[in-house]
Amino acid sequence: MEWIYLAVAIVFEIGFALGTNATKGFTRLWPSVFTLVSAAGGIFFLSLALKTLDVGVGYTVWTGIGSIGTVILGALIYKEKITPVKVVSFASIVGGVVLLRVAAGV
């Protein structure tokens, strides 16, 4: 169940990051509300996942996969560029997440 909580937390993390850009410095009401709710949801579900996951594994997976999702959706939504260096960085993050899961015995 902890990995489901972590997956939900990651979705909220991506929403938080993308929403922060849409707030325009928290000057727009609904994007700001969305961003704050996403931040709270991400932390809440992360805390549920960390009841049984090691904090080093859970937090690293949360931020790593959240970062990848943010970059991919940022490219789709905000037309940000994905460069070859970013692709290599994504592969490194994914490799690290996989190794952490193996090390955690999951």
TrEMBL record:
Keywords for the protein's UniProt record, in alphabetical order: Cell membrane, Membrane, Transmembrane, Transmembrane helix, Transport
GO CC annotation: plasma membrane
Superkingdom as given in the UniProt entry: Bacteria
Location in or out of the cell: Cell membrane
TM region(s), chain numbering: 6-22, 29-50, 56-78, 85-104
Entry-linked InterPro entries: EmrE-like, Small_drug/metabolite_transptr, Small_multidrug_res
Gene3D superfamilies reported in the protein's UniProt record: 1.10.3730.20
Topology relative to the membrane: Multi-pass membrane protein
Any one Gene Ontology molecular-function term assigned to this protein's record: transmembrane transporter activity
Family the entry assigns: Belongs to the drug/metabolite transporter (DMT) superfamily. Small multidrug resistance (SMR) (TC 2.A.7.1) family.
Name listed for the protein in its UniProt record: QacE family quaternary ammonium compound efflux SMR transporter
Organism from which the protein derives: Nonomuraea aridisoli
Phylogenetic classification of the source organism: Bacteria, Bacillati, Actinomycetota, Actinomycetes, Streptosporangiales
